[in-house]
Predict the structure.
Amino acid sequence: MILTVLQISFRRLLHNRVELLLTFLVPIAFFSIFAVIFGGGLGRGTTPRIKVVAVDEMQSVVSRQVMSALREQESLRFVRENDADALQRDEAMELVRSGSATMAIVFRNDHDQLAAELMADASDQVAAQVVSALVNRSMMLSEAEYQVSQLTDSDQNDTEDSVDAVATGVPKDEPFGIEASLQRKVEVIDVMGEGKANPVVSMYASGIAVMFLLFGATGGGGALLEERENQTLDRLLSTQMSMDQLLLGKWFYMSSIGVLQVGVMFLWAQFVFNVDLLGHLDGFLMMTVVTALAASAFGLFLATLCKSRGQLNGLSVILILTMSALGGSMVPRYLMSDELQQYGLWTFNAWALDGYTKVFWRELPVDALAPQLAVLLTSGVVFLLAARVLAVRWETN
Amino acid sequence: MNYARPTPALAIHDLQKSYGDLHALKGVTFGLHRGERLAFLGPNGAGKTTLIRCLAGLTKADHGEIFLSGRPFKSLESRQQIGFVPQEIALYADLTTRQNLEAFGRFHGLRRRKLRERLTWALQWTGLEDRADDLVGTFSGGMQRRVNLACGVMHEPDILLLDEPTVGVDPQSRQRIFTMLDELSTSGTSILLTTHHLDEAEERSDRIVILDQGKVVADGSIDELVEQSVGTQRLVRLRIDRPLSSPIREGVAAGAVSYGNSGEDEISTRIDDVSNHLPGLIELVRRRGYGIADVQVESPSLHHVFLHLTGYELRD
């Protein structure tokens, strides 16, 4: 009996292509995506480069040396390469606030000593640590080199000790060491999260929200296929209703449900995790409405592309999880290589998350959402038109 | 065929439809009059569903014309005159009877008072007033069929198209559904249905059209079809008290007719005029010394007509 059950189960699995796909192919696909993102398969050698700007207020030999050393770092990308000297502190801070740079490095004079302030966008939780370490190292080495260059020959013996100390970070005489003293000169200032109760949660909330908008939308699109399979669609099209009206009706319904879904989720986030939803209501509504419209159109497009509900389920799981992985719903995009971040721009998730980040994190005015709104709305309209074209076969076959 | 006088509710002329190399309809022509009940018969793949879809505006014919009350069929405008009930239960199972009827009434363009009136009528017509607020998904197959039917006639169409309306339904529910259809027919609605049940077609329709390989092979009342195809002969079977020693012959020389085969205890033959020829046949058998145990006279049925015209059983 048990053997028969086993046999029948295996035979049924072999006859069900969608189940086979979900069982064997989807895990491989996902493993590959994450391997590509974190394992360096795609875009090998292009580790995530942190976008920085630097301001040299001290204008000393050492500060110039540090600036020069930092420019040679592969993990940093200076977004204002040419006019670094002219850049002012406030201007640099504004670049961080607007998202053009992840961090502004400001070198200043602290009682004739070089000190650095790292004005960070804390949404990138890795950048602050990486840049802090690099700046520390560069300052330490540049200062040591400078001191060595200032010594006379008679001081050479003492110099060896100093260089050893620099190299190992464990000085012979000083109780706290050179590194420790330099550490105190590098200060990380969070210029984005100040005054926010639970700022990072809003980003996770939007990441999850967009992913579920897409799942909800394909579920809604699946209803269309169900109607097709049980002939309700034929019946509907034999009434006064046209396919245009049917698709538009479904689009509006799915979008409304999407807006409600995300709204409820953010309300929960407001009450439980102190995300300031009510303070950002205008931007939130604009982003949510447009993202829901785009996701719903995508759901309808997939539904009209597929022949059966089973096919839609298989395809949507693969597409949505891939888009979510690449677009930053699962893993922040700043952890990905530049190349993958570029690929991410082909997903809804990336544009939607950028928009929500502008609203909740950067607190930019709503006109700053124009690129995100335009891309999402345009893609929504394109997918809706594509769905309409594909649905022609259901009207005239 | 001339449908000018009287103007039929539906007239189809030379309808053709192909899917690639497959010719689903090869010039179908027939008419349907007001209040007439027409059954469409044909084996699987004969083109019945394609024809119904063309009439419902769901499939565009490659060639031919469709007229509704003398006016050319126009997809969106003509839909108001046609009610379509698909073979599947095409309802929202997670809505109540009332909500389904309301929804399809609205889709057909009904509003406010008219919608309320039709809703009341439909609940009464289906006998589901007491289940108006129950979810359709909880209903038996027969009850769902009734709601399925009602949703197709909310807008009082002139012509009702039904694709296998009683498939998978128990005899009692079938009876109920046909009683409902009779009511519609009496009120002037023309009904065109496809069915696999020959008895349904025979008993419940005024006219039968048989479609085979995309062509109309017969069109008329059951009596007309019988006369056109298998003729008026009746099959007579006489069971005798012992096996025949040799065939029974009537007449002499070249004009002689023989009945039965040696060793069999049954004589079967076709005769034209039963009342005149059957007594003679019985007398002939008796004269040969055989006793008659049983006599059976079989009239030609739609089954025989179908078999005669298409060459195979309907289930094929």
